[in-house]
Amino acid sequence: PQELGAYDYAMRAMSHVWLLERDAADHALALLDKALQLDPDYPLALALSAWCWAQRSVYNWAEDSAAAKAEALKLADRAASRSTDDPLILAVLGTVHTFARNYGVARVMLERAVAIDPNAAWALSRLGWLDVYADRPDEAKVHFDKAMRLSPLDPVNFNNLVGLASARAVAGDDVGAADLFIRALQERPNAAWIHRNLAPALYGAGRLDEARQSLAKLLVSHPDITIRKFREAMVFSPDALDRMAAQMRALGIPEE
User: Fold this and answer.
1) With bands split at pLDDT 50, 70 and 90, how would you rate the model's confidence at 1?
2) Of 19, 22, 150, 177, which sits 20 to 30 A from 191 (CA to CA)?
């Protein structure tokens, strides 16, 4: 067709949204903006836009992480007011609220998504992340494993591996965490934000040369990374963040 509709723009954006890469998220937002120009109340476009803004916050792509998070929440609230029974939209909204640390709201939305569609692999994955942030690594593993069994060829499975690795890091197992972070990067080499987690895990595992190599790669994609920015973006528990921050500090990442 010569003229694309809001649905068409949203579908074009979808694959870019799930790459979890900076340029892809920017491209997705441009497409979603066109969708919302045609239909400002389109719930899917609103939810996906919210997710892209949340990515800017949590992956340290935005200079002002709080502003990106606020924009994500604003779009999420608009989407939620227009759709409460689409499992994909509920899963996206649950993710956005997770990054805003609204854990109770996030869990309600994600559990509702799974109740509507028991095969909603991404919603299960996001429940796994909620358990990681609550320092419940064993429960998190159950969710991630189920998500990957339901969708074994899912292009976002690298993020399930990141989740499994983060669960091991939360449990204090840096050796296991480092190996899983490396597997995730092998599946998605462009997801450079993983080095924020890999470098500290390698340090904790005593693999100092590899930790420095990982840090060097992190600084290419995030040259202005600081411990403060890391802590603002991430939503791990205070104890987990303190431990990771100490490892990053030992690697030479500045405080401010």
Assistant:
1) very low
2) 150
DSSP code for 153: T
Alpha-carbon distance of 225 to 206, in angstroms, equals 23
Query: Using alpha carbons only, what angle is made at residue 164 by residues 158 and 168, rounded to the nearest 5 degrees?
Result: 140
Q: Which two tokens stand for residue 93?
A: 């909204």
56 residue type, one letter: R
Q: Is the pLDDT of residue 173 over 80?
A: yes
Residues in contact with 68: Cβ distance below 8 Å, sequence separation at least 6, in sequence order: 53, 54, 56, 57, 61, 62
Query: Which residues, including other chains, have CB under 8 Å from residue 143's CB and lie 6 or more apart?
Result: 124, 125, 127, 128, 131
- Average pLDDT (81-107) is 92
> What contacts 152, CB < 8 A, 6 or more positions away?
none
DSSP state of 223: T
